[in-house]
Amino acid sequence: MHIRTLAVSLALLLVSCGGVWAQQSDAESAQSAPRVFDMKACVERGLEANPAIVAARAQLSGAEYETGSTFTDMLPSTTMGYGYTHKDREPATATSGRRDVWAFHINVSQPLFPGISLLNAFQKGMLQEEQTEAKLEQAELTLIGEIQTTFLGLLQGRMDVKSAEDSVERLKSQLEVTTAYYDVGLKPRLDVLQAETDLASAEQELVKARNRVATREAKLNTLLNLPLEADVEYVGELDERPFAMELKQALTRAYSKRPDIRIGEKSVAIARKDFNIAASDFLPSVDAEWDYYKKGNGMDLEENAAQWSHSGQEYWTAGVNMSYSLGAGGATQVLDALKADENVAQIMAELEKVKLDAGYEVKEALLNIVEARDRIEVAHKSVAAATESYRMALARYQAQVGTNTDVLDAQANVSSSEAELIQALADYQTALSTLYIAMGEKNPGLVTE
Predict the structure, then answer these.
(1) What are the average pLDDT values for consecutive 10-residue runs of the chain, which has 449 residues?
(2) Which are the contacts of 40, defined by CB distance < 8 A and separation ≥ 6?
(3) Coiled coil where (predicted)?
C-alpha cells in the first residue's frame, strides 16, 4: 500500500515537473522567436524609443520648467537676514542698546509695474514652450519619413533579390542547355563562355542585392533603437494602393498642420515679445516693498529689551519705489528697440519662405505620385512583353533557329523590366510618404484615402 502511494506521488511529481519544463520551454521559444514589425509597428517603435525623439521630449520638458521659472519672477520675492554686531564702546544712551547687538530683518518685494517686461518674458516663455512642442512634432515627422523610406527600401531590396535569383536560375538553365549543345557539337565554345559570363555577372548582382537588404535591415534596427544583431522580421510588400487627392486640398492641410509653419509663427510672436521687452525700457519700474526689523542684545532678540526704545527694538516699514534708467541718454534703448523691430521683419520674411517651400514640397510629391503610378502601368506591360520575348527566344534557341545572344538579351530585358517595375512601386509609396510628411501628418502605415 505504501509502495503504491509512493509510486502515485512520484508520477504526479514527474507530471508537475514536465509541466514546468514545458512552460519554460514555451517561454524560451517565445523569447527566441523573432519580433515581427510591419511599417506601422516600425514607426510606432521608432517614435517610442529613438534617442533623437527621447532627447526632443526632454527638451520640451525643460521648456515647460523654464516657463514656470519665468512665471515665478512675477511673484513676491522674500529676503531674510539674521546677524550679530559688536560695537567698540558702550552706546551713549541706554535706549540705544548695548555693545553686542543681534538683529533680524525680512523684506518682501512685489513688482507692480516692471516696465511690462516680466509679463512679456512670461508670454515669451509660453511661446517658446509651444515652439519646442512643434519642434518635437517636426522631429517625429522627420523620423517617420526616414523609417518609412528605409522600410520601403528594404522591401524593394527583397524584390530585387527575388528578381536577381530568378535571373540566376534562368542563366543557369541556359548555361546547361548551351553546354549540352556544345558537348554534342551543335554550338560553339563562344556561346558557353558568353553564358558563363552573364551568369557570373548575375550572381554578382545577387550578392549586391542581398548586401543591400542586410544594410537596410541594420539601418532599420538603428532607427528603432534595436541591437544590430536583434532577430527582427520586417513584413510588408510594395503595392499600388489607390490614392486620390487634389493639390488644393493637400495645400490646405499642409498650411494648417505643418509644424515648421507653426514654428515660424511662434518665432514671429516671440520676436514681437522681444520688441515689447526692449520697448519696456522706456517705461519706469514700480515695486512695492515691506520690511520688518527686530533687534536685541541676545540671540533670542528678547534679552534686555527694556534698554531699547519700542521703535528702535522692533518695527516695520512699507512703501512703493519707482525707478527709471536711461542708458547713454536713451540711445541704448532706442537702438535695442529698432534692432528688435528689424528682427520681427526678418522672421516674418523667413516664415513666408517656409510657406512657399511647403507648397512646393506638396506639389512635387503629388507630381511624383502621378509619375510613379504611370511608370507602374508601363512597367507591368514591359515585364509581360519581356517575359514573352524571353520565352520565344528560348524556344527558338532550343529549336536551333535562334542564337544564344538572343536568349541572353531577352533574359537581360526581363531583369531590366522587373527592376523598373520594382523601382516604380518603391517610388510610388515613397512619394506617398513624402506627401504626408509634407502635409505635416503622421501616417505610420501609409493608409491612403
Answers:
(1) 43 44 39 76 93 84 69 77 80 60 85 66 76 88 95 95 93 90 85 91 94 95 91 91 91 93 88 77 76 79 62 77 65 73 87 94 96 95 95 90 89 93 95 95 89
(2) 444, 445
(3) 192-219
